[in-house]
Amino acid sequence: MLWAALWLHRATGRPEFLDYAVEMADEFGGTGWAITEFSWDVKYAGLQILAAKLLLEGNHRPEHQLKLEQYKSKAEHYLCACLGKNDAAGNNVNRTAGGMLYVRQWNNMQYVTNAAFLLTVYSRYLTSSFFKLHCAAGPAQVDELAALARAQADYVLGNNPTGVSYMVGYSRRFPRRVHHRAASIVSHHTDGRFIACVQGYDYW
Questions:
Q1: C-alpha 49: how far from its chain's center?
Q2: Which family does it belong to (predicted)?
């Protein structure tokens, strides 16, 4: 609800959506959860960065200041976690030997690409606002956020120890047998039968 409210505020400019995100921030965990991932079902880091944008730009009423600062603090926890600059190892995102951010074994690329996106977005917010990012292990420069974002994108596209692009169809080496029916099912031109969702398991 908080995520939706801030996007509606951004799309419409209507103040009641921002009021809602501020008033319900504590109850719905927006200012309570310090997160080290951003995924299809865990939106807190994105929410917190979107709220921080309003603070950095001064695009809010005075009574929103305190709550937006709390949002910003949690947003920076996520960013510092990606940079490995939080106060304890358990509060940072792990890295593989090749340098890829690693959250968990299933669908890890969503966390990598999402992190690259949020790091890029926040680096631009900082550049335009002249604010600084302060992590427990020391200050982080805007260039560090942008460099990590680029490194993660490059890793996905093939600059990794195996030299394989994880984006199907990009570069000369990419996965040919993707573990997903939509990516491995035969062309409709080859087999024109109607295949329902469950039936797909029978063949692919």
A1: 10
A2: Belongs to the glycosyl hydrolase 9 (cellulase E) family.
φ/ψ of residue 32, rounded to 5: -105, -35
DSSP SS3 for 80: helix
Task: State the pTM of this model.
Answer: 0.87
pLDDT digits (tens, 9 = 90+) for 23-65: 999 999 999 999 999 999 999 999 999 999 999 999 899 999 9
Write out pLDDT tens, residues 111-159: 999 999 999 999 999 999 989 999 999 999 999 999 999 999 999 999 9
The domain ranges of the chain are 2-173
Q: Which of the residues 9, 60, 77, 179 is marked catalytic?
A: 179
> Reduced to 3 states, what is the DSSP secondary structure of residue 134?
strand
77 is catalytic: no
Fold assignment, 2-173: Glycosyltransferase (1.50.10)
SS3 state at 31: coil
